[in-house]
Design brief:
With 536 residues, the chain is an alpha+beta fold. Helices cover 43% and strands 20% of the residues. The chain is built from 20 helices and 16 strands. Strand 13 and strand 14 (485-486) form a beta hairpin. The radius of gyration is 31 Å and the shape is elongated.
């Protein structure tokens, strides 16, 4: 007589249910059919990786089989699937197959169907980029292969510049935070060039972009090439203007506080017009009270640092000698314009006698020539200091939507939704998610893994959206962290409340689900039949 067995189900049934609802395995198996006698299809393997990724166990992919050793694999993945089937070889074959069909193109196919099944209509798209560091040495890093992902040193947003990097570019819609586009890039990719390529080559073929109101990005999107490409495609954009542009600096430098109009929540602004890159657009110059207070200390530190730099420059300049008064005055003019936060107080011309030999001149020795220099005291440039304080908390947003109905508040609200894609990157970099560094030994598999990671974010965002949507539509609530009812719980908090749910298998009976709580039952019921079957 066999002994009872217990498998940990927890929140993984929700992940498996969403994969079935969105038909992830069916999409993959239709594109990459199974070959050979393997028990697990590529679609089922991908679902297993998504369940593993959302297991929040801090394990790496080489522990794939161990993760499923105490999980109800048939209930989660499919009939006949056991933990022993989910080997490293199965995982590797799946990653290789995903790479061969093209991860960027395949992900677009998945994303389009997911957005459609979730009923997400017109939205804004948010574009951003991040890097992951990669451990280990890679054969072929230096090969001249334009198709292969190059794992090389680049700018590290994880502050690990000593390690090779790989870059993930991602575009999310703003209703549920679903990534609708992903692309793996070389470790030394430039943000501005990558954004320009997306604007020029990928946006026109992206179905989500055709249904979008605005493409939103940070200052890296605001380049001549990107702006012109978006304009030619009739795509409205909202982006931050980089302060490296001369027009942007001048706009901020000439800012007059009395010209700003308050539009609520501590923000005030002023509309400007621009034709940067030959595209007619509106700029919104914004001042944030919160950002101003936050940046004031930074401004003071930079002013003090610049004072010290000016003092050192002054000492060097006052040691210089010039052959004639005209040269001295010309040098003074050039030097004065180079000071950062200072002005010279009544500079005095000083003449110096130069003798034929160094040292103390003899009693009746005459100088062979005279040289000129200056002496002066340093004073703060009050106009510059006032300007710097005035610029604290100020930034510029740009849009080519010339409709006069757009308000300052609505433009800012559109841009602030950029936090969605940034939250997605923070999710992918969480130490609880798969792994914060990538350990696979083939660049091709790392590229495929980046697609898997993006799919994991997709499932997480879709679950959170569906739970919130159904709680509102069915007038139900879920307890928050303070045990108060809410209709907007995070998926992570829902996952935590599902901990302790198990599948119990007795020798003489069917499998049983134990450990469910009232709040978990609420979520299972509102999500529908697919989830009820998994948790029954």
């Amino acid at each position: 007589m066999s002994t009872p067995s217990i498998h940990n189900l927890d929140h993984l049934g929700l992940v498996a249910g969403m994969c079935r609802e969105l038909r992830i395995a069916d999409i993959i198996d239709a594109v990459i059919p199974k070959h050979g006698e393997h028990a697990v299809t590529h679609g089922q393997t991908l679902v297993a990786m998504l369940i593993n990724g959302l297991g929040f166990h801090s394990g790496t992919l080489h522990m794939f089989s161990e993760f499923f050793a105490n999980k109800p694999t048939e209930r989660l993945i499919g009939p006949g699937i056991e933990a022993r089937h989910l080997t490293d070889d199965v995982l590797g074959r799946c990653l290789d197959s995903l790479y061969e069909v093209g991860v960027c193109e395949l992900y677009q196919v998945i994303a389009e169907q997911v957005v459609g099944r979730l009923g997400l209509g017109e939205s804004d798209l948010h574009l951003d980029i991040t890097s992951f560091h990669v451990d280990g040495r890679y054969a072929g890093d230096e090969e001249d292969d334009v198709k292969r992902l190059r794992l090389v040193k680049g700018y590290s947003r994880d502050h690990r510049p000593e390690l090779n990097q790989v870059v993930l570019e991602m575009m999310c819609e703003n209703q549920a935070g679903i990534p609708v586009f992903m692309q793996a890039l070389n470790g030394n990719s430039n943000d501005q060039k990558s954004f320009a390529e997306v604007s020029r080559l990928h946006l026109k073929s992206l179905k989500a972009a055709q249904n979008s109101n605005y493409l939103v990005g940070d200052a890296a999107l605001y380049t001549e090439e990107s702006i012109q490409a978006l304009h030619e495609q009739g795509q409205h954009f909202v982006t931050r203007v980089p302060m490296t542009l001369k027009d942007a600096r001048e706009a901020v430098c000439t800012l007059q506080s009395q010209e700003l109009k308050d539009f609520g929540d501590g923000y005030s602004g002023q509309w400007l017009t621009s034709e940067y890159a030959g595209v007619q657009q509106r700029w919104l110059l914004v001042r944030s009270e919160q950002a101003t207070a936050r940046e004031e200390q930074t401004v003071l530190r930079r002013i003090e640092k610049d004072r010290q730099a000016d003092d050192k420059a002054l000492k060097r300049f006052f040691k210089q000698r010039f052959a004639c008064e005209a040269d001295a005055r010309q040098a003074l003019e050039v030097f004065s314009s180079s000071l950062k936060v200072s002005v010279l107080s009544s500079p005095q011309l000083v003449t110096y006698d130069v003798f034929a030999r160094p040292g103390r001149p003899k009693k009746d020795e005459s100088p062979i020539r005279q040289e000129y220099g200056f002496t002066s005291e340093r004073q703060d440039n009050e106009a510059i200091l006032a300007q710097r304080h005035a610029q604290a908390g100020v930034f510029i947003l740009a849009t080519n939507d010339m409709d006069g109905d757009m308000t300052m508040a609505s433009l800012l609200a559109i841009y602030k939704q950029q936090q969605r894609v940034e939250r997605g990157f923070r999710f992918l970099k969480s130490p609880d998610f798969l792994t914060s560094a990538l350990f696979l030994k083939k660049p091709e598999r790392i590229e495929a893994l980046l697609m898997v990671m993006t799919c994991t974010l997709m499932i997480y965002a879709a679950l959170e959206h569906r739970i919130r949507q159904e709680l509102r539509s069915q007038n139900q609530t879920f307890p928050d962290m303070k045990n108060k009812p809410t209709q907007t719980p995070t998926a992570r908090w829902v996952f935590i409340k599902f901990m302790g749910i198990h599948e119990l298998i007795l020798p003489d009976g069917p499998p049983m689900i134990t450990g469910t709580k009232d709040c978990a039952n609420t979520v299972i019921q509102i999500l529908g039949e697919t989830y009820e079957q998994i948790y029954s």
